[in-house]
């Protein structure tokens, strides 16, 4: 085998074609609503971590569990990267009519790209959070919120942080 590219070989690199059953696919007996997605800080140094918070509300009549998923997208990268990368997920039980505020940490290592060595690059990133992948169209309604953040500084090897 001489071609080690992942393009067209895994759902993360399919381009615009959506997978038949993406991660998080499924139905629930209740409905959830996401709101108040906050990224802090919105501009961070190259080696810094990103704090993320989001409010999840069970808007249905039944108690339920939701798998909250966070995906990262590089807006511009010097090397090929996935359309989006799963960086965190958590299964959360929320009683009917109640809400919970969730906090996540996206560490610098999760923004690293492979270019003969793991390295961090500056630029603009988009973070998605919801009960499914970004752009997923299913019969079960589920929101996906998004927000952008910017990484400043010069590109450097990950081990330099």
UniProtKB/TrEMBL annotation:
Its EC number is 3.2.1.21. It is an enzyme of class 3 (hydrolase). Gene3D superfamilies: Glycoside hydrolase family 3 C-terminal domain, Immunoglobulins. The keyword Hydrolase applies. One of its GO terms (molecular function) is beta-glucosidase activity. It catalyses: Hydrolysis of terminal, non-reducing beta-D-glucosyl residues with release of beta-D-glucose. Residues 66-133 form the Fibronectin type III-like domain. The keyword Hydrolase applies. One of its GO terms (biological process) is carbohydrate metabolic process. Keywords: Hydrolase. Pfam families: Fn3-like. InterPro entries: Cellulose_deg_GH3 (IPR050288), Fn3-like (IPR026891), Glyco_hydro_3_C_sf (IPR036881), Ig-like_fold (IPR013783). PANTHER family: BETA-GLUCOSIDASE. Belongs to the glycosyl hydrolase 3 family. This is beta-glucosidase.
């Amino acid at each position: 085998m001489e071609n080690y590219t992942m393009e067209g070989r895994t759902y993360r690199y399919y381009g615009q074609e959506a997978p038949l059953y993406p991660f998080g696919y499924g139905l629930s007996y209740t409905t959830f609503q996401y709101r108040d997605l906050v990224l802090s800080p919105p501009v961070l140094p190259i080696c810094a971590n990103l704090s993320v918070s989001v409010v999840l509300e069970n808007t249905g009549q039944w108690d339920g569990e939701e798998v909250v998923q966070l995906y990262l997208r590089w807006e511009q990268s010097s090397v090929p990267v996935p359309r989006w990368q799963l960086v965190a997920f958590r299964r959360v039980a929320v009683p009917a009519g109640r809400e919970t505020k969730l906090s996540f940490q996206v560490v610098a290592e999760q923004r690293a790209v492979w270019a003969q060595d793991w390295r961090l690059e500056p630029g603009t990133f988009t973070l998605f959070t919801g009960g499914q992948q970004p752009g997923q169209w299913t019969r079960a309604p589920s929101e996906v919120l998004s927000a952008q953040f910017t990484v400043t500084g010069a590109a450097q090897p990950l081990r330099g942080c």
